Amino acid sequence: MRRPSVLIGALSLLAIGAAALFLTWGVDGHWDFALPRRAQQVAALVVVGTAIAVSTVIFQTITRNRILTPSIMGFDALYVLLATSVVFFLGSATAAAIPPLTMFLIRACLLMVAATLLFRLVLGNGKRGLYTLVLVGVIAGTFFSSLTSFMFRVMDPNEYDSLLSTLFASFNAIDTTLLGIATVLLALGIGAAYWLGPQLDVLTLGRDRAVALGINYQRTLTMLLLVIALLVSVSTALVGPISFLGLLVANLAYQLTRTYRHAVNLTVAALLAVLALIAGQALLQHVLHFNGTLSAIINLVGGVYFILLLVKESRK
Amino acid sequence: MKSSSRIAAVAPWVAAALVLILGVGSLFLGVADVSLHDVLTDPDVRSVFLISRVPRTVALILAGAAMAVAGLIMQHLARNRFVSPTTAGTIDAAALGLLTATLLFAGASVMSKILIAMLFALAGSLLFIVLIQRIQFKDLILVPLVGLLLGGVFRAIAEFFAYRNNLTQTLDVWLNGDFSGVIQGRYETLYFAGVVALVAYLFANWFTVAGMGRDFATNVGVNYKVVMGAGLTIAALATAVVVVTVGAIPFLGLIVPNIVTLMMGDNMRRVLPTTALAGAALVIACDMLGRWIIFPYEIAVGTIVGVVGSAIFLVLVLRRNRYAQA
Amino acid sequence: MITTSDLTKVYDKTVVVDHVSVSLPDAGVTSVIGANGAGKSTLLSMISRILDADAGLVAVDGLDVFNAPSREIAKRLSILRQETHMTARITVREVVEFGRYPHSRGRLTAECVHKVDEAIAYCDLGEFEQRGIHELSGGQRQRAFIAMVLAQDTRYVLLDEPLNNLDMPHATSVMKLLRRLADDHGKSIVLVLHDINYASVYSDRIVAMKDGVIAADGPPESVMNADTLESIYGMRFSVIDLDGDRIAAYFR
Fold first, then answer.
1. What pTM does this model have?
2. What's the CATH number of domain C1-76+155-252, 3.40.50.300, 3.30.565.10, 3.40.710.10, 1.20.1420.20?
3. Is the dihedral of CA C32, C37, C38, C42 positive or negative?
4. Which residues of A touch B148 (CB under 8 A)?
5. What's residue B136's pLDDT?
């Protein structure tokens, strides 16, 4: 038995250390310029890491496996597609007139509706095999992003990249204007996740046992899906899609905690994600000067890990 | 049964007719107005026609046929309907090879780029084969899934180095096939892909035998390893030529062989010509769509095929239970 | 009392449970028997609201199970079904603690801890308490889940084929445990059984189903006779009296 409080304390210290490194490394006296900018980046990474970790752990509990994640099921690609569709169907002039905050909320609401519907459509009857679900998710993600780039082309045949960069964030261009609202929504999502923690614990036993223990399954599932969609919106709006971070931190968290309790797993997974993002970005950006390669490295490490996980699972 | 054999008899002719009709359509679709009469009478129009329209249409036919044949060979050798250059990491490996060639040997000739891209594609396919041999239970679904993820890993490596060298946009272009730049003198390498498809046809029976499994192949006196290596090389070469010359055309090698074998059965020698024609027809159709939707601008064929191909692949996977028994 | 009225379930146009109206008592052991596909498990799943009914009602102590707050039902009725998929990372004691969820919503009170201890002792699980549930043998795991429904402390305990995959010593010990539960704690145990002789020996009442309807219902003495069993299963039986128990033989 590991003591969760020791683990959480140690991870918190590491995350704080990484943040300090990120904020101060190589500033060379340009403090008033560098510090506020870097502080915003750290804040964004904390929000993104937490949102991804929490949404992944919840998703894995309701689907009862360690392989599916919202991002692998194409949720973040869907967010980007929906966001593009808004501009596509309203026209870029109308869309530009909508204040960014309102726009963000519109997109988040659209994702909540679409993700809940899609989840029920694809996973609903529970008869499809796990690998089929993953494959469907991966292809659906490709489909969503192909459709997105198709819409971009149609909207703006010449200025493809300029429109792309004004509409969408990435690790290289974190959308800090949304940081405030993202933090509020994150707090809302986390609050709901911890409040639903005991219900999540019971869901570990499966739908039937949860119903037998007095869980209102449909209502709980809907609430959890809404929380997931909200958190995916938050992270995707700030830095764009990141495929495998959730998979990595959730599985690592289970390894470390060896418990089913969500109060512990959610916290540890979130700390791991924050630590990975800040330490990774600090190392790449400030120490190695490999700017803009974080998502490629996450995709590389995560992809290899995912393949190994699949090969291992198939041998059971 | 009777109706399906009738489909099998008609399908090659339908595919050939489609290629012909679409090919002619492609010749006369474009920003500059070109009519048959002008081609015959006006030397300026004729030169536009010969320098741009004809090469583009020929390139579409060659690339489409080659990718479809590469997919057909790979699904036979892997004994899995969902294995193709897209779902075995081959395309991404070829792009990684092209990036390597560009970075390490600045000013390398097109031929040497193709060679390096082919070696990477071959190595990527071999890694994929080794990986799926480690999977105990060869699930119809798990195998292409591993391949897609492997492709993602290759792409991540390519993205890393592309970003470090300011080649991100170039990489995007390679990964998204586009025929708008095809003119006389800049597509002829695609004839290699055509030759490759032809060679595949000559040796089709061997691939059919190898597709029955190692034991069966050995039993009838076919050297399994040689056929396997030859098949993978053909698929890798076709993919590399297409990626280097016009950019990747995703999913084509997956959906075309699936649809054709669904109608005509699994005998490779019989299916291969139709597969090649259907691949050509589909690519021409998608390219014409891309030229037409936002006329006078163009949408790259890779984008159109990406949407159409992933949608069809989704349908194939979701109705797989009925399909697998058919 | 649990009462169903006109309870019906249809799968793909096949009527699995056909307008079943039955009352289950406040106490004692009631066994539900019948051939495969007779609708036993479906009936039990609907009574415990795990499965929605296509028509009909279920009332537990007057509460409509499909519409009353799920938590109120969970304080009165528990169900144990066959389910093999079980996550790692969960100990036997934690499984039993889940039984207290309807009462405490995850925050165990002193009374909860007491009930959990009691359930663990009652099912003889003391030595496995801190073991992972996936490390146990089939019989031990079954006892752990019985302990969980015990900790749930409901008047009605429903079990769907609790003897599946158990060898004879384990099966008998589970049946003894259930009998004691009815006798010592005054609970009402309702279980689906395949082995009609276990049903005969341990039950106060046997409900036999055939083709979605109730084919026979009464004390073992009235159901356990050759003619009734033959009409339920469509094969020949001979029933003998063995030290006061009625035992059916159907091997020839």
1. 0.86
2. 3.40.50.300
3. positive
4. 135, 138-139
5. 65
C190 vs C159: CA distance, rounded Å: 6
Interchain proximity A198–C101, CB inside 8 Å: yes
Name the DSSP class of A213.
Answer: T
Question: Is A213 in contact with C152 (Cβ distance < 8 A)?
Answer: yes
Report the alpha-carbon distance of residue C149 to residue C142 in Å, rounded: 11
Please say if the pLDDT value at position B1 is more than 70: no
Residue boundaries of the structural domains of chain B: 2-323
A248 by Cβ neighbours in 10 Å (0-12 / 13-18 / 19+) ranks as buried
Kindly report, residue by residue over B70-91, the tens digit of the pLDDT. Answer: 999 999 888 888 999 999 999 9
Domain count, chain A: 1
The two structure tokens encoding residue C20: 């079943």
The C-alpha atoms of residue A138 and residue A307 are separated, in whole angstroms, by 13
State the complex-level ipTM: 0.86
For residue B324, is pLDDT > 50? no
Residue B2, pLDDT score? 45
At the top level of CATH, the class of B2-323 is: mainly alpha
pLDDT tens per residue, range B286-311: 999 988 988 888 888 999 999 999 99
- For position B103, what pLDDT does the model report? 92
The answer to whether chain A touches chain C by having 3 or more C-beta pairs less than 8 angstroms apart is yes
Supply the pLDDT for residue A163: 54
> Where are chain C's structural domains?
1-76+155-252, 83-153
Q: Which domain holds residue A84?
A: 4-315
Q: How far apart are CA A133 and CA A123, in angstroms?
A: 8
- Angle at which helix B142-164 crosses helix A130-155, to 10 degrees, equals 40
A156: domain CATH number is 1.10.3470.10
Q: Are A281 and A15 in contact (CB under 8 A)?
A: no
- Does A25 lie at the interface with C, CB-CB under 8 angstroms? no
Confidence check: pLDDT of C61 > 80: yes
Residue of A nearest to C99 (CA): A213
